[in-house]
Write a structure and sequence with these properties.
Blueprint: H1 2-13, E1 28-29, E2 32-33, E3 36-39, E4 46-52, E5 57-65, E6 72-78, E7 88-94, E8 101-107, E9 128-136, E10 146-154, E11 161-169, E12 172-173, E13 176-177, H2 184-187, E14 190-194, E15 200-202, H3 208-238, H4 240-243, H5 246-275, H6 282-303, H7 313-341, H8 348-402
Antiparallel strand pairs: 1-2, 3-4, 4-5, 5-10, 6-7, 6-11, 7-8, 9-10, 11-14, 12-13, 14-15
């Protein structure tokens, strides 16, 4: 049982890297020369442009890089605020049919949930006159490959202060980009730039307190819902006979400790959600609420636990088992959902958790097999005793008849 606590320590010490400064830019992009350029504050991205005041058009080149061969890179504008919600973007990724680079427009309206439904391509808008994408020094999309996204836009007169957003992700399902990683740097990929004065208002990376909240939230929930509560269920199911009456106190102690840790992790998640405007994980939040409510009902059930002689005891046991197992399953599923939300779906942190959980599951399987072996032996012994009793009774009856 030591690996879950090693995992807890590792996650608490894990802090995503935050870039200290913007990338260096160049005004010459893919053989085209632009009037101005800036280095964007995250992901090593840059932006170059030429603004034609006479007809209010903007020629623009965004430069970024892929983080996986099956990933995507996107740039866009938000007409209202420097946030992802409400932005119109174009995303570059490998065409599933031809393998070549493709660029598609998307609209991130407030109803879009990248985890619940595929993100479908929608027109950028009439102000996008043309767009294209090209790889930088690479024949195909690969991890680390650079990409340029070119766009020509028609702007409103004297509207030169633009809210830029950009990001990149690991996977594309069909022609639908999936959710990007959610490290502080990824969530800060936005900036407001005046294309005439080159004044830049960058959204700074999340402060260290936000990083600590994320790490603590992940550690508490993984250790409680993912490890301690399942272990408490195992205590109740398999240690009644070895421990005697003390099994109940151990079971209650583990479950109460696990629930308090999980409730603290849930509270931190509520705080993080309130601070993350425009970022919503409906499925993760819903599963968290269900787990906390189920755990609360279990705690309340302890206060209403009937005596063993009470006729309602069997109904209470059915309720306790149903809600308990349901809350445990929901909690474990939500831990995996949390890894995906944090962009750690294929990480060593998830692997460490899986090793801890598999240890608990393996012990439970071994104890379950042992309990069935004991049950079968006991049943066979009782059958033998019954057979012996019947033989003795028949012998006794035969003796009386002979006399």
């Amino acid at each position: 049982m030591s690996s879950p606590f090693i995992f807890l320590l590792v996650v608490l010490l894990h802090s995503p890297a935050i870039p200290a400064s913007a990338s260096r830019c160049t005004a010459t992009v893919f053989g085209r020369t632009f009037a101005k350029c800036v280095g964007l504050p995250t992901q090593g991205a840059t932006l170059a442009w030429t603004y034609h005041a006479r007809n209010a058009t903007l020629d623009l080149a965004f430069s970024g890089s892929f983080i996986s061969p099956s990933g995507w890179v996107a740039w866009g504008l938000n007409p209202d605020s420097p946030s992802m919600t409400g932005a119109r973007v174009v995303a570059a990724f490998s065409d599933p049919s031809s393998g070549g680079l493709i660029l598609l427009p998307f609209f991130l309206d407030p109803s879009v949930k990248l985890q619940q439904s595929p993100l479908l391509s929608r027109p950028f808008g009439p102000h996008l006159l043309s767009s294209s994408a090209a790889l930088r020094h690479a024949a195909a999309v690969s991890a680390g490959a650079g990409v340029h996204i070119f766009a020509t836009l028609k702007l409103s007169p004297n509207h030169t202060r633009l809210h830029h957003v950009w990001n990149r992700g690991l996977y594309v399902q069909g022609y639908s980009p999936t959710i990007h990683p959610t490290s502080p740097a990824d969530l800060a990929s936005r900036a407001t730039i005046d294309i005439v004065s080159t004044a830049t208002e960058a959204a700074g990376p999340s402060p260290s307190s936000e990083v600590a909240l994320r790490s603590t939230h992940a550690a508490l929930n993984a250790a409680s819902w993912g490890i301690l509560l399942p272990a408490g269920v195992a205590v109740a199911r398999y240690l009644r006979q070895p421990l005697g009456p003390s099994w109940f106190f151990l079971h209650a102690a583990v479950q109460i400790a696990g629930y308090l840790m999980g409730a603290a992790g849930f509270a931190i998640g509520i705080v993080m959600g309130a601070r993350s405007e425009g970022v919503e994980y409906g499925l993760h939040r819903g599963l968290g609420v269900a787990a906390v409510v189920g755990g609360g009902l279990q705690s309340a059930a302890l206060l209403l636990r009937p005596k063993t002689t009470n006729k309602y005891r069997k109904y209470w046991k059915s309720y306790h088992h149903l809600v308990g197992y349901g809350s445990m399953v929901v909690g474990v599923v939500n831990v995996f959902q949390g890894f995906d939300v944090m962009g750690l779906g294929r990480s060593y942190w998830k692997l460490a958790y899986c090793l801890g959980l598999s240890t608990v599951v393996g012990v439970c399987v071994a104890l379950e097999v042992n309990s069935w072996v004991v049950f079968c032996r006991r049943a066979a012994s009782e059958d033998d005793d019954d057979d012996e009793g019947r033989r003795r009774l028949e012998t006794k009856r035969a003796g009386k008849e002979n006399t």
